[in-house]
Queue: 3 jobs
Job 1
Amino acid sequence: MSKDKHVSETPATHLLRQAAVPFSEHPYEYVEHGGALEAARQLGLHPHQVAKTLIMEDENARPLVVVMHGDCEVSTKNLARQTGAKRISPCSPETAQKHSGYQVGGTSPFATRKRMPVWIEATLLDFGVMYVNGGRRGYLIGIAPSVVMKVLGAKPVEASLPKS
């Protein structure tokens, strides 16, 4: 990691540095509604290796974090079944921001304002490195999926659907 690529600290990177977790930094030009696919395109990464962080909620409005491939959608039915919920749906952007403490488009699964269970798409664990938001729009971090599991106490889930 070169010094000129360093992005100022976020709650996510602060937590990872405190825990002595190795990660790489990958700033890019944020594009409104570009998402993980735009980040992957700009950084020359495979979109399946770039994860998006989604804040969702169950039927009782209990929030949860879902880390999913950037080129896939979440099957909320499969997710609900595997997490023991009756129903899961995405939070509104305002609610997601309130739970995570991050601006939508810059949501990291690390150091969220509210402690939430984290579910990670199982096939992301197949990569040596995955790329996930570092806590700010236009900023990904490269990190080992096994480390994500350990630091977040994440549980694997099989809930990916090809993007329609």
Job 2
Amino acid sequence: MSSHREAPEISKDPVADGTDVYAFVSPDRPTHVTLIANFIPLQKPDSGPNFYEFGDDVLYEIHVNNRGDATKDVTYQFKFSTKVRNDKTFLYNTGPITGIGSPNWNRPQFYSLRRIERRKNGDIKKIVDLGTNLRVPPVNVGKRSTPNYANLSSQAIHEVKQNTRVFCGQRADAFHVDLGSIFDLGALRPLNEAHLISMPNAAGVNGVQGYNVHTIAIEVPIRKLTRDGTHPTNALSKKAVIGVWATASRRKSQVWNKDQGKYVGHGPWEQVSRLANPLFNEVIVPMAEKDEWNARGPHGDKRYTKYVNKPELQGLLPVLYPGAFSNLAAYDKPRADLNAVLMTGIPAGVVPGFQNFTGAVQADMLRLNVAVPPSSSPNDLGLVAGDAAGWPNGRRVNDDVVTVALRAVAGLTIPLVDPSYTPDGAASAVADGTTNTNAAATGSFPFLGLPGGGYQTEPGTTSAS
């Protein structure tokens, strides 16, 4: 999956586990960019009495690079704190939570939001506290405890300084993938009959169905993210492209404090999770290097370029699907197409009128050209389907990144940089056959659908109300 439990160590630390990152020009406010980072994967809605929440001991950050060197130019930093109102009860809530400040909610959570600007050498240039004591909504417990969750959740959308809007809280997971099939020897149910171990073709099954995540979403004026403080309108301008990634960090050491009944962190913050492009650490980076990747910054990603230029999955497809990928099997050149998509951005001249090239520095970042307006008729396959507002130009909530990634690895995008190559016919048909079966994305901030509720949800289904 995109980045749910994608590395051995972070799979043991779900509170710090980043699952997906999104970056797109806001369709309802095109002067702004929406940045979203999801954490805490695979949340069952019916998870009481201890429901999911952000970690007070985790530093969550969304980073933006606007100089093309894959370093932090602008950082939005989120720190959370949790209160217990009544220490004599085990209950998450002692009655219906009808408002975000309801005294019936026994474990409210708050956060501060800080914007950090850095100079080219990495030194801090400016720190602005955009908001303090901002409220997180409760999780969607059920019809009695959170009777009007849509209204409750909307109360957690905060207008803060610098014409910025922010939301932190539980939402439905919009990512979809057939986990049960893809990790069963690389099978794709719609292509089961062609697999080396043949089975009848079948519809894909969304392995993330029924699960929620915790979302950090921030909507920022475009001019606050570009290198010169302007809103570019020329898609071919270098100033129009930004790089985005998210991280989670913990203190260097943790010691159990018996008086407080919890671990207490000490020392500097150490990065334990990072994420930009979907599926990068999941299926590109080898198992033995995944944890190290999570701890590094994108400016050092050149060491992983060899895995992009010759991805393991490219070699597996012809073996797993005999005869379906003969052209791909014979292709032995470095994958310049994947390198452009994942490591440098797409240079001008490859796609007419478009580019999101950040330069020669090899780095995994979501690259967003902010001069490309939102699409009036979005296509979930994004750029490869002619919709330049979709992945790999940033990433929207509805973009079908699994299908796009599979088809790219299967060779469909090679002709963009190597016209002599003819993709196999199967390359345009590859898909895991899933769609988002959780709450649909909304047309307004924070865009992800409402989370499934504990009372309403049955195994394999999800319902927000």
Job 3
Amino acid sequence: MPAPPPDFCKPPGKPVFRFAPSPNGRLHLGHALSALTNEALARRFGGRLLLRIEDIDRGRCRPEFVDGILADLDWLGIRFEQPVRRQSAHFGDYASALASLRARRLVYPCFCSRQEIRAAVMGRESAAGGAWPADPDGAPLYPGSCQMLDEAAAARRIAAGEPHVLRLDMAQAVAAIGDGAGYELFDEEGGRRFVAARPGRWGDIVLARKDVPTSYHLAVVVDDALQGVTHVVRGRDLEAATDIHVVLQRLLGLPTPLYHFHRLLIDADGRKLAKSRSSESLAAMRERGVSAGMIRHELGARPAG
């Protein structure tokens, strides 16, 4: 394991934590665990606690879900500093970060549809006689079909309105930041451990789309820096994605927070709770008589107040 680079030091000042849900559905018990874990660790370390609404997906995020998030968190008794940051009000911040990466030729347009990517991957699997590599989420790595497109030809296609995304050239990005990239994990007692990043396993990730001008990865990195977040507390399902965030932080000259990944809640089928699987919402639990105190007790959190 490489040694931590020289700039790995304890963040100065008062610790800053944040809970950052997306308003594309109602919060469930897994969100409550994450919010309460942030609350508990902010209290333990004498830190500030922020709320951020991650609503960059304007097609799926709805105002009523924002209202629902605020109502659920108030019901749980979690208090956040004001104002609440809404990502949809800050697309200019993400555009500036993306422009700096494009200026360094670390980003390129990709015109491949999902169907074309699947066909290219299947063709390469057949030629190689083996399975094509997948990223940590299980999706096949982008095969680089558009990576070497002529810039003038690509510009004409963009000007003509052809659908496309912008991808990070991961090999170039990793070369630009050099060796020793990583982050520090912290535990409930304040202990810390360096973790080396392995961003290459993600391939050329998407940083922006025509309909959503930033990605989760780019927006969260920019937001954490602008809000002065020093301690990121989130579920273990996002641990691998931290590799991407470290790369973007280094490329953009942003600080790397400390990280803590909490357990995930599992349903009767052995799958983590998720909005996409219609896991029971906190609102539904409240309607059937479950109290906020019961939720806090079940998740091992201190009473509110």
